[in-house]
Specification:
The protein is an alpha/beta fold. It has helices spanning 15-25, 48-56, 68-80, 120-137, 142-167, 183-188, and strands at 8-12, 29-33, 59-62, 85-88, 97-102, 108-112, 174-177, 192-195. The strands form 3 sheets. Strands 2-1-3-4 form a 4-stranded parallel beta sheet, sandwiched between helices. Strands 5-6 form a two-stranded antiparallel sheet. The protein has a two-stranded parallel ribbon with strand order 7-8.
């Protein structure tokens, strides 16, 4: 199941994953992002063009950390495309439990923080998982994917070292954000994230 130009079709949920796939796969892959930049993963519905692209893909890389789009759509996508190799980008990542937003029954439900890519060391796991998937579906280019993996992992480790050294002398370890997307970053570098928005609700006065 390969699209035009015999590239391997790879579908991903979010743009950060697409960057990893392109870095690993280069000209050997054709990437489809299901939730494009600026779209809301809680409400986005795939277009007919995206559904066609998934049907032509050989692999789907899910974030695997509770992204709303995946909770709603992934089962349907897999049922319609039984030949897809499913890769879980979160495999190996220790997920952060959070209090989820209110459901229709008015109660708050526990969930996980989906933003695993915000930590370079989590990104290491994501890159390794994606590379393993590419090797499975395209064995003949395995060495190419592994070489690109090693280059990318080296960059991520260097980024991690840079962040640690930059933060080493800072005594005030708290930072404020609007949307609580930096939980994994905060955990990795011993920081405290203070979020204005809570559980997907507008901030109160």
């Amino acid at each position: 199941k390969e699209p035009e130009g015999s590239r391997i079709g790879v579908a991903v949920t979010l743009p950060p994953q697409a960057d990893f796939v392109r870095r690993l796969g280069g000209d050997h892959v054709e990437v489809t992002v299901m939730v494009p930049p600026g779209a809301d993963p809680h409400t986005y519905e795939p277009t007919p063009k995206q559904m066609t692209a998934v049907s032509q893909a050989s692999m789907y890389a899910k974030v695997g950390s509770g992204v709303e789009f995946e909770l709603v759509w992934l089962d349907r996508l897999l049922q319609q495309n039984s030949g897809l190799l499913l890769v879980d980008c979160s495999e190996g990542v220790q997920l952060i439990e959070t209090a989820g937003p209110d459901n229709h029954d008015g109660e708050s439900h526990d969930s996980t923080d989906p933003h695993i890519w915000m930590s370079p060391m989590n990104a290491v796991f994501m890159v390794q998982n994606i590379c393993n998937g590419l090797v499975k579906i395209d064995q003949q280019n395995a060495d190419y994917y592994r070489k690109n993996r090693d280059t990318l992992l080296k960059e991520l480790v260097e980024l991690d070292s840079y962040i640690r050294s930059s933060l080493s002398g800072i005594t005030s370890r708290s930072f404020m954000v609007y949307h609580p997307a930096f939980g994994y970053f905060a955990r990795e570098y011993n920081l405290t994230m203070i979020s204005i928005e809570e559980e997907g609700k507008e901030p109160t006065a």
